[in-house]
Specification:
Strand order of the largest sheet: 33-32-31-30-29-28-27-26-34
Distance between the termini: 78 Å
Oligomer: single chain
Strand content: 25-35%
Largest sheet: 9 strands, antiparallel
Shape: elongated
Radius of gyration: 29 Å
Helix content: 10-25%
Length: 660
C-alpha cells in the first residue's frame, strides 16, 4: 500500500471517530490465535484457559484516547490481578512498530502484553474496527465474549462493572456499549483471485510438504483438497503452527525460510475465511511442476555410511539412546562440503546426532561434542532440511575416522525397523575455512511443578574472530521460548535469533541470510523458559519437578551455533605419538583378541575373560559378547553396549584405555 493511500485511510479514521457506535460484527465467542507482543514474546489466547476472564484492549500509539486510557487500564489490571483476570493489548495499526509500543507501555507502567496483529486478520475476526475498545472474554463459558465497549465513558468505569458482574457469575447488565476510538485503517485486499493470488502461496508454502509422497500427513496439491482442509489450515495459521517456522521476523532474514510474508498470510487467511473458493476457470495447482521426492536431497553423495544392521524398536516403551559405531572406510583425508542424514523410518527416529572419532594422530583437532551438549558433527533434527555448508567452508574428516550415530528412538505403538544412512559430499580441494557446530549449554536447572514460565540461560564465548552462519535452539516438551543475543566487546548487543514460540517438533538450524562477522571475546547469551504447567498441551506431567536428562520427559537447554574460522594447515596436520606406550596398538578388537584383556575408563575397569565372563571393578560379575562393532556387556540388572573402532573401545564417545 502506498504512503499516500495509508495517510488518507488514517485521516478518514480520525473523522469517523467523531461518531461513537456499537458494532454488530462482534462474534459470540473468541477463536484461538497466537501473536508476538511488544516485548518479543509469543502469546496464545487459549493458553490462558485457566483465567476467569480475559480483557482484550485495542491499542495504537498515536491514538490520544488510548494514551489517556492506559493509566486507568494499568490500575484495573492491578485491581483484578488477584482474581486471575488477564489483560491483553491488541495493536493492528499498520505503521506501529514494537519499539514505539514498548516505549509507550514503559511510560505508562503497562506490564501486560500488547500483541502485534500485523496482518489485521485477528482484529478483523473479533469484529474490532477501532482503538480504545474492550472485549471481555470468559474462557469458562466456551470463550464467550460477554462485554464489548469502552473502559470508561462520562466518568463511569463500564469495564469494571462488566468484570465485577461476570466474576460474580452474573450476566453483564449491558454487554455492548458505544465506543469513541479511532477506526483502524484496515488494509483493503479487494477481490482475491485464487489463480493469481492464492495458488502461488499454496504451492510455495504448503504443497512443498503437503503433496503425494511428502512429509505432510495429507496432500494439498489440488484445490478440492485445500477446500476440504480449509478450517484446519486457518486454525493452524492463526496459531502459528503452520508453516513450521518460528524465527521472529523482527530480527533479521534467514535462508530457506518457510515463513509467509505479512501480505501472503493476510491474503491466505482472508481467502480461507471467505470460503476457500476457486473463482478461476482452472486449478493452477494441477499445473505446477511439483518436484518428486528425491532419495538424496543434495544429490548422490560421494560416500555413504550405513548402519551395520537394522535397528529394531519395540511398539511400546522408553528407550535409552543407542550408539552405533561406523568406520568411514576412507583411505584419504577429506573435507566435507555437506552432510545429509537420511532416517530410514522418520516416524520412529525422534532425532539423531552424529559425532566423529578421529584417529589418534588427529585427536588434537577432534570436535569436542560432549554427546551433543557442546555441538555435533551432523544431525537429523525435526524440521531441519539438508543444506550445503556455506561457501568455501567445510568439516575435516581424516582417513581412519569412525562416525558415531547417536539414535533417539520413540515408540509409535507398533514394532518398527530403522536403517539410517549418512551421505558425505566432498570438496575437491581443502576450503579456506573450517566449519564447526558448537553448543552453549547449561544443565543445572530444576523446573518446579506447574511453572508457566521458568527462565533459564546459557552462554558461549568466542575466543577468536569467527564468521557466524546460523543458530538453533534445543529443548524438549516443556521448552517454550529461546533467544540468542550477542554481547560484542565495546559494541552493541545484537539479537541473532528470537524464537518466541518454541515447538519441539521443529528444530531447524536457522541460517542467517547474511554472514555475521563476530569478533573475539563476543559472548552469546541464550535465554529462554520452560512451561511446566497444565496449559502446555505437550507437557508429560505438570505435577513433577523436572531436571536435565536425555529423554523427552526430561529437559535440555542448548543453543547451537554454526561458525567458521580460517583453515590452519598446521593445526590440521597429524601429530606423532608413542605407539609403544599404547597396549594392543594396531591389534583389532575381536572375540578372539579381547579375552584376557582389561580396559579402564574413569573409575571403571572391565576385565574380559576368555570364557565370555566379565568382571567390573573386580566385584560385579557379568558376561560379554561382540556383534560387529558392538560390544555388549550384561551384568545383574543392566545391559549396555560399547563401541569398537578397530583397536579401540568406546563407551559413547569416551575412549577406554587398555591396562593389561
Amino acid at each position: 500500500m502506498s504512503p499516500n493511500r495509508l495517510s488518507l485511510l488514517m485521516l478518514a479514521g480520525v473523522l469517523m471517530a467523531l461518531s461513537p457506535s456499537i458494532h454488530a460484527s462482534t462474534p459470540e465467542r473468541a477463536e484461538n490465535f497466537r501473536l508476538n507482543c511488544h516485548t518479543d514474546r509469543s502469546w496464545e489466547l487459549y493458553r490462558l484457559s485457566s483465567a476467569p476472564a480475559i480483557v482484550v484492549y485495542t491499542h495504537a500509539t498515536e491514538c490520544d484516547s488510548v494514551a489517556a486510557t492506559l493509566p486507568k487500564l494499568a490500575e484495573m489490571q492491578q485491581m483484578f490481578e488477584p482474581t486471575g483476570t488477564r489483560f491483553i493489548g491488541l495493536n493492528a495499526w499498520p505503521t506501529d512498530e514494537r519499539s514505539g509500543v514498548r516505549e509507550q507501555a514503559e511510560a505508562h507502567g503497562i506490564d501486560f502484553p500488547i500483541l502485534m496483529d500485523v496482518t489485521q486478520r485477528i482484529t478483523a475476526s473479533l469484529g474490532l474496527t477501532e482503538t480504545n475498545r474492550c472485549l471481555v472474554i470468559d474462557p469458562q463459558k466456551d470463550w464467550a465474549i460477554v462485554y464489548d465497549g469502552p473502559v470508561e465513558s462520562d466518568g463511569i468505569n463500564y469495564l469494571f462493572d462488566a468484570l465485577a458482574e461476570n466474576l460474580a457469575g452474573e450476566p453483564v447488565t449491558k454487554p455492548q456499549r458505544a465506543t469513541a476510538g479511532t477506526p483502524y485503517p484496515m488494509v483493503e485486499l479487494g477481490d482475491l483471485s485464487y489463480a493469481h493470488d492464492i495458488a502461488p502461496i499454496l504451492a510455495e508454502k504448503c504443497v512443498t510438504c503437503h503433496r503425494p509422497g511428502g512429509i505432510g500427513p495429507f496432500s494439498l496439491a489440488r484445490h478440492r483438497r485445500v477446500e476440504g482442509w480449509a478450517p484446519m489450515m486457518r486454525e493452524t495459521i492463526r496459531t502459528q503452527r503452520m508453516p513450521p517456522w518460528h524465527a521472529d521476523a523482527e530480527f533479521g532474514d534467514f535462508e530457506a525460510s518457510l515463513a509467509m510474508t505479512v501480505e501472503e498470510e493476510r491474503m491466505l487467511l482472508a481467502w480461507l475465511e471467505d470460503g476457500a473458493v476457486n473463482n478461476s476457470d482452472f486449478d493452477p495447482l494441477e499445473e505446477y511442476d511439483i518436484e518428486e521426492e528425491r532419495l538424496w536431497v543434495l544429490g548422490e553423495p560421494d560416500h555413504i555410511l550405513e548402519m551395520p544392521q537394522e535397528e529394531h524398536i519395540p511398539a511400546q516403551g522408553i528407550f535409552e539412546y543407542r550408539y552405533i559405531y561406523i568406520p568411514t572406510g576412507l583411505t584419504e583425508d577429506k573435507w566435507l562440503r555437506a552432510i545429509e542424514v537420511q532416517a530410514g523410518t522418520p516416524a520412529v527416529v525422534h532425532h539423531a546426532l552424529m559425532f566423529v572419532i578421529y584417529p589418534r594422530e588427529y585427536r588434537h583437532v577432534q570436535p569436542r561434542a560432549r554427546l551433543g551438549l557442546s555441538g555435533y558433527f551432523a544431525s537429523f533434527l525435526p524440521g531441519a532440511d539438508a543444506i550445503p555448508y556455506p561457501e568455501d567452508t567445510g568439516q575435516f574428516l581424516p582417513a581412519g575416522s569412525t562416525i558415531v550415530f547417536q539414535m533417539h528412538y520413540s515408540a509409535t505403538g507398533k514394532e518398527e525397523v530403522d536403517f539410517t544412512r549418512m551421505g558425505l559430499h566432498f570438496h575437491d580441494e581443502a576450503p579456506a575455512r573450517a566449519l564447526t557446530i558448537t553448543g552453549a549449554h547449561n544443565n543445572r536447572f530444576r523446573i518446579p511443578p506447574h511453572a508457566e514460565d521458568h527462565p533459564h540461560r546459557a552462554w558461549y564465548e568466542f575466543e577468536e574472530d569467527v564468521r557466524l552462519y546460523g543458530a538453533s535452539p534445543h529443548m524438549h516438551f516443556r521448552g517454550s521460548r529461546f533467544r540468542f543475543d550477542a554481547h560484542i566487546p565495546d559494541g552493541p548487543v545484537k539479537t541473532l535469533l528470537n524464537v518466541p514460540y518454541y515447538e519441539f517438533d521443529w528444530q531447524p538450524m536457522y541460517h542467517f541470510a547474511e554472514t555475521l562477522e563476530i569478533p573475539a571475546g563476543t559472548r552469546v547469551e541464550c535465554t529462554g523458559a520452560f512451561d511446566n504447567s497444565a496449559l502446555n498441551p505437550y507437557n508429560p506431567d505438570p505435577t513433577t519437578w523436572v531436571g536435565f536428562g536425555e529423554q523427552s520427559f526430561q529437559e535440555m537447554f542448548i543453543g547451537y551455533l554454526m561458525y567458521s574460522v580460517p583453515r590452519d594447515d598446521e593445526h590440521y596436520s597429524p601429530r606423532d605419538f608413542n605407539r609403544e606406550e599404547i597396549l594392543g596398538y594396531g591389534e583389532p578388537v575381536t572375540a578372539e583378541t579381547l579375552g584376557g584383556t582389561a580396559w579402564r575408563v574413569s573409575n571403571w575397569e572391565f576385565a574380559f575373560h576368555e570364557d565370555g565372563t566379565l568382571q567390573v571393578n573386580g566385584l560385579i560379575p557379568g558376561t560379554w559378547s561382540i556383534d560387529g562393532s558392538r560390544l555388549r556387556l550384561e551384568a545383574p540388572g543392566s545391559t549396555f553396549d560399547l563401541g569398537i573402532s578397530h583397536d579401540r573401545i568406546f563407551v559413547r564417545t569416551d575412549e577406554l584405555r587398555r591396562v593389561r
